[in-house]
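Appendix B. Extra example for self-study. Work through it before the problem class; the solution is given directly after the inputs so you can check yourself.
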Amino acid sequence: GPLWERPLMEVRLGELHTWISTCNFSPQGLLAAVQRAWSSYCAKYIHVKQGGPAGISMLLAGYCLLSYGWNYQHLSKISYFRSS
Amino acid sequence: VLHTTRPLHTTQQSLAPVPPLPEKGGEVRHGLIPEEFFQFLYPKTGVTGPYMLGTGLLLYLLSKEIYVVNHETAAAACILTVIVYAIKKLGPEVAAFADKLNEEKVATAVAMKDEAIQTLQTAIEEEKKEQWRAEGRSYLFDAKRNNVAMLLETNYRERLLMVYSEVKKRLDYQVAMQTLKRQKEQDHMIQWVEKSVVQSITPQQQKESIAKCIVDLKALSKGAHAAV
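Solution. Structure tokens for the complete assembly:
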């Protein structure tokens, strides 16, 4: 289909710039984008007849990475080799 | 107000029946990385590409101390081991249990649907039976018509009988009157004749007849004496 209706995965690298320019960056647009992403993730990995551990494990892994990223400043300051 | 000119159910899209859920979810390798990533890298790097990428990334993070090895790393390692072991051991059982639950739900729904279909089928049969029964109404009306005709007939005959008996009564009355009148006339005439005859007997004739009777009686007594 036309460029602005394609999801991100189907956009080629050269067209990425134009695709971003057609994006809707208002709060409603961002909210709608988040909603779309979440519902597509759910439809693919959670609302299936025989789901495995993949559905929640990816969410947990993402959560781990995010929390590490947020606490990096604090974690990097812990020194285990203090001479005291 | 329902506008009957508006067309209904013209599009394919409708809320029921709901399309069934897909059988299996998206493919995920090692429980964490979707298969699409491996397929994305396959044309350029072959099969080992993503693994090399992963190893290189891990070594880079460790060496540059972007990922700091602390006490939580050991805890994470132990927890991950336990989780993976639990999933490998108990996974199929849990899956079978969940499938059984699903089966039961689907079975109850299907049973309800079958029951509804069955009741509707029996309702259709009953309806057909009623229609067949309604066809016999012509016989019913014939019987009723016969009944009514019979009632009319009996009524008509009753009245006929009544008319006949009434007429007969009147005619009998006339006949009785005539016989009575004739009898009375006869009696009267007989009486009158007797009276006139009795009157016509003059005293002279009475004496003569009495003397003749005495003579006859004497003769008879003489004859009787002689016989004895």
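Self-check: The longest strand of chain B covers residues 28-29. If your reasoning did not lead you there, revisit section 3.
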